[in-house]
Every structure is written in structure tokens, then in C-alpha cells.
Amino acid sequence: MSETAQFHSSVPSPVETSLKAAEKSWENHPANPYNWPEKKKWAIIFIAAAVTLLVGLNATATTTPSIVIAERFHVSDLEFPHSYWPVTVWNTAAAFGPMVGLPLLESFGIRKGYLALYAVFILMLIPQAVAPNFATLLVSRAIAGAIGGILQNTMEQLSGDMWRTDNERNLPITFYTYVYVAGVTLGPVLGAVVSDLYWRWSVSWGKLPST
């Protein structure tokens, strides 16, 4: 390679120079989530934690009144435990939903997508609460599960988007883990409490504190 070619290959192009300048400017820009005040970061995390908790409650609240639900819709467990389908379809959908939803949120923007998904999740509580048959209950819970899985995992994603280092992310990730476990653990407990009054409350009461 000639000296002239070596010289030209070592000189960055105008495009490369512009990109590097933009990256350096964004690194110190106030709009960069890494540079947001700690109060703002934790306010977002607490909102996401509340959503994660409510979603977890909806996931498992139907576990306790499963027999009552089966009797209401004339579903028999003699040949197969069909009464567990409301929880099974929710968790199965929640396992696959984030595989599609999280990359889309990352590509098109988390804030608008997150709010839109949460609105749909709240709406899906209505058909769960007033389902006239078992099939409607299962379909509405499957949709809620797919969306709920995305909402729950977004909290973890937000931690990575707002704190630079692993050490800084330890506390919000730990908080996310506790809230996640608390939601799915308290679901059957609260489901047992409200199911003594009316089993449909076990899938619909979660929308009350969210409105």
C-alpha cells in the first residue's frame, strides 16, 4: 500500500467525524436517560414497580378460586385439570410476549409503547371480569398475559437504560425482583380473600387502584 493510500485510510471521513461528534454530544446531553436526576429515575422505577405488582396479582389471583370458576362455567377436572387453564394460558402467553414486544419497544420507543400496552392491559381486565363463558375468560387472560409479560420485563429494561454501570443497576434490579415475586406470590392470597365475596373480583379488582 502506498503512503498516499495509508494516509487517506487513516483520515476519518466527514460522516465518521459527524457521528463521533453526535455521540459525544449525546453522552453529556441532559435528555440522555443516563444523565437524568436520580429522583426522576427512581420515580419512573416506582411507577413501573406498581405496574409490575398489579400485573403479577392478575397473573395468579385466579389460582385460589379455580374450583369456583370451574363450577361456574361447568368445567370438569375428572379427565384433565381444566380449572388450571386460566393461570396456564396467562403464564404461557407471558413467556412468549416479551420475545416480540420488548424488541419493538426498544426500536419504536419505550414510553409510548409502555403506556399503550398498559391501557390495553387494563381494558382486558373487563372481559375477564364479565366473561360469559370459559373460552372468553381464557382468550382475554391470554392477551392480558402476553401484554403483562412485556410490562413486567420492561422494568428491568428501564434499569439498564437509565444507569450506566452494573453496580448502579444492582439496586433497581433487586427492587424489580422483589416486586415481581411479591406480585405473583400475593395473587393467590388476595384471590382467596376476594373470592369468598365474589370470584370475579379476583381478576377485576386490580384495575381499581390503577385508574
Query: Which bin fits the share of residues in helices?
Result: over 70%
Q: Beta-sheet strand percentage?
A: under 5%
Q: Main sheet, how many strands, which sense, barrel?
A: none
β-strand number:
0
Mean pLDDT: 83
Tally of alpha and pi helices: 9
Order of helices and strands: HHHHHHHHH
User: Runs with pLDDT <50, length 5+?
Assistant: 206-211
Q: Note the gap between the termini.
A: 69 Å
What would you call the structural class? Answer: mainly alpha
If you had to describe this structure to a student in words, what would you say it looks like?
With 211 residues, this protein is mainly α. It is built from nine helices and no strands. Helix 5 runs antiparallel to helix 6 and helix 6 runs antiparallel to helix 7. It is elongated and about 70 Å long.
